[in-house]
Amino acid sequence: xxxxxxxxxxxxxxxxxxxxxxxxxxxxxxxxxxxxxxxxxxxxxxxxxxxxxxxxxxxxxxxxxxxxxxxxxxxxxxxxxxxxxxxxxxxxxxxxxxxxxxxxxxxxxxxxxxxxxxxxxxxxxxxxxxxxxxxxxxxxxxxxxxxxxxxxxxxxxxxxxxxxxxxxxxxxxxxxxxxxxxxxxxxxxxxxxxxxxxxxxxxxxxxxxxxxxxxxxxxxxxxxxxxxxxxxxxxxxxxxxxxxxxxxxxxxxxxxxxxxxxxxxxxxxxxxxxxxxxxxxxxxxxxxxxxxxxxxxxxxxxxxxxxxxxxxxxxxxxxxxxxxxxxxxxxxxxxxxxxxxxxxxxxxxxxxxxxxxxxxxxxxxxxxxxxxxxxxxxxxxxxxxxxxxxxxxxxxxxxxxxxxxxxxxxxxxxxxxxxxxxxxxxxxxxxxxxxxxxxxxxxxxxxxxxxxxxxxxxxxxxxxxxxxxxxxxxxxxxxxxxxxxxxxxxxxxxxxxxxxxxxxxxxxxxxxxxxxxxxxxxxxxxxxxxxxxxxxxxxxxxxxxxxxxxxxxxxxxxxxxxxxxxxxxxxxxxxxxxxxxxxxxxxxxxxxxxxxxxxxxxxxxxxxxxxxxxxxxxxx
Length: 620
What we know:
- By secondary structure, the chain is an alpha+beta fold.
- Among the domains are: 10-68, no CATH class; 76-87 and 147-319, Jelly Rolls; 505-549, Laminin, CATH 2.10.25; 550-587, Laminin (Ribbon), CATH 2.10.25.
- The protein contains seven helices and 40 strands.
- Involved in controlling patterning and neuronal circuit formation at the laminar, cellular, subcellular and synaptic levels. Promotes neurite outgrowth of both axons and dendrites.
């Protein structure tokens, strides 16, 4: 190893060692100090759980080599990359133009929303723009002119990329926060949704869930979906504008109140089932169910003051790269992990071609501070330690061990094919029974089928030159029995060879579309249905062998003219009215409603004397 003479001064590029415009001439002692400081900064960065380096040069007896580390991209604001969709169509104000007023000045309705005028328009993209010169821009809905029909809106945010939350989600509402709202997430690009948090001024009344706060959660229930009243009570639209989904409060349970012990958080993410998945998403959705009311009931004489308006949606997250990348770039309109460790894919979710000597695995935060990269290894012919289904411990050695890998692979497949043919002839000549399928030949005597312990039978597929497992047990399927059958999902806390690696979905047959669920056990629910197993109803629906829209309720769909709502299913009307909401009079043709009752009363008055006379005669 070459070293510089101790008498020769060295210029070092550390900015903290520079003097007025001139590089500092460094002595050996100062070089040692600077090196020590650099090492200390590096170690502290790793110790705080940043995992921002995928590899580092280390010195060995054979020279400098790269040592791989588990790594992840830095957190960033991702709102500028999100795509926004607002439903239902026509919910955004301005087409046609309309006037509105605020809850603080309900009778000064001089403001206007007009989609044809850029200065008066409030389109959805204003939720993610950068506000300059102090001018606040916002998206706004139509006003509640159709009351008592609910004023509801869905705002779907998508990134076409799996992300992991690193800080609180913040939604800023102008003119008042909703009194009822749900934040939902999707982990499969919007195909299915699951609740993230409920918001209401009265959680029991709105969702039949007791109110709670994120800061009161514990390690045992940190992933529970809660309902909070903290952001829905009326305190004035200018005093409190922000609604939060509290990520930091949940992190603090394991990392401390100032999040200094990130090592503790990452350790729990490895050991605690579902914790990391709880902060993982591909899409977010805001379901706005009831606007701000100003602390009172709905006032029907002025419905122009009820609407939703959002000026900003802030999401701090990092790309999910399965601890195989430290960079995530915006390429061709999508966020893309810059994969290391011989992995590839948008999330670094598979091994690169030629590096499949063992099954792909996500990196691990443990052991700290560098974690386990679980690097994909290069596929070499004749390997007995890999987990690829092409590799078998009992295969004979063949000539050409020093050939390039492609040629080795070709010879390797010929050897496997030769073994199958010889074994098949042996079985047939000896009178043994052998099962032949169109897709290949099944063998029961392979010692290394690489089926994760869920099968000991393999099939060689000739035209693909691959070996695949057959008759996978324990509700598994796939080439290596690595996936779960339909109707089951993977137990992330179990090892791949665990008999209980696949858990039954148990979807409610009345509330779900089918018996399948996503990777976290959430079933795909029918419209109006909610819950992990689709056995609960969303607000505005009632359960009766499935969820059906409320016919009536005590807030929005009020029974009119003295009617009473019976279990949200029907209105019990007074005798003089009829209709779904008792909104229609029973009197037709302009007749007086009390005409029939007046006629009945007059007849009764005429009959009373006659009845009295008859009773008197009978008594005498």
